[in-house]
Amino acid sequence: MTTSMIVPVIDVQGNNFKELWPAMLLAIKTSSFIAVDTELSGLGSRKALLAESIEDRYKAICHAARTRSVLSLGIACYKKLENKADDTYLVQVYNLTLLCVEEYIIEPQSVQFLVQHGFDFNKQYAQGIPYYKGNDKGGDVHGQNVRTLFVELLRARRPLVVHNGLIDMVFLYQCFYAHLPERLGTFTADLSEMFPAGVFDTKYAAEYELRFAASYLEYAYKKCKLDNCKLESSQDGPQDVCLRFSAYGWCPSGSSCPMSHNTDLIIQQDEKTKENKRRKRKKRKHKANQEAEGGGEGGCLSPNKKPCLEEGSSEHKEGELAMETLPAEEGELATGTSPPTEPEPMNDQPQVEEEPQTDAHVLTDEGNGGNGVCEPQPPPAEGAPESQPPGGKTAAQAKKAEGGTHRAGFDAFMTGYIFSFACTLKRSPDEPSSESLLPECLNKLYLSGKSVPLHIAKSTFSKSSKAHTHKMEVVWGKS
């Protein structure tokens, strides 16, 4: 069974930006936490982005942020209802279409990906909200623009939530705040002052706190949603899951892959596999106690999980799941307003509805936080057999376009949903719900290929940058 819900996302662009400005400010100022996501024009060298040295990675991301741009910005403002017995949130989601007024690189791979998943470049160039990068210029810092909106987000002093967010944080800094510092230590020192309530990375939370089998955005969101609703799904018959997509949220074959990319099914298969392994371990232990020589075969993948391109390509991690607490209800209301039952157009611009379905597209946020650029994957092993559809099905019969939506606004909503679920799940019974944030994940950004996160902190060896120091004076009205 596949569940879906409609999440109204307000499209913000040049012709309605000023009209929606008061509502956006109110949503930010009255929120409990804010989740953000970006869509980018590219990231440059994938190899450099995954360099062994974190300092080298930072330099590569800085180069990308200085030469590329943010095409759209998603902001999801979560407001906790304190008078509710359970963790219930009102959520206002905005999808801002942006247009950098300076020259920037746009990569064909990113264009192709975004167009395939519904991004309207005609609308961007016709109605994109203009912005410039780097330091402030003139009196624009006090006008109604994206850079000022980012300043208001800082003034709200709310926790900021991202998914695989190092790239997002670097781009937000360069595009809407100030010129990036040259050193990573200076950058993290600046961030610690910009966001005193903390930055939380839901990919880190999914990996190290929730211990999900996979941590890409759509998987983590649907896993939380399924556990939250305590759904018991049943399939009409066994389906084959693509191991590559199951582990990374990305498959080189795309929609032509004969295996299933349905994240609901992937989660169910992972649960079954985990339970099968648990039973086998218990059986082996029991047998070892009865016989002098113990043995038995090791845990194996679910028989319904088949590899895409190569055998043994799964990178699933085992983790114990304990999902018995119900977190926030799913809801979407305009903060501080009384919206009608049905969404109404604003200034001739329809309010967009995003609905996660089983027939949409593939999310690719592994290694990039959902920015629309795939992490490089290893090539298939030489001589590896190509996977064939089961039961003699043809590729056309087995082909399914499965997945969720991929827009910055809805991705921000999914990021916030994961965070609210994790907060509720990890809160001790005697802890007040108002203090339900994740202390274990505070100021820790996920690093691909590393066992430790990037800590956002100001050390004795790193000073704040001059551009940041000046900007903080602007933020707090000292200049």
From TrEMBL:
The keyword Ribonucleoprotein does not apply. Coiled coil: none annotated. PROSITE patterns: ZF_C3H1. Residues 275-287 have a biased composition (Basic residues). GO terms for cellular component: Cajal body; nuclear speck; nucleolus. The lineage of its organism: Eukaryota, Metazoa, Chordata, Craniata, Vertebrata. This is Target of EGR1 protein 1. Residues 383-392 have a biased composition (Low complexity).
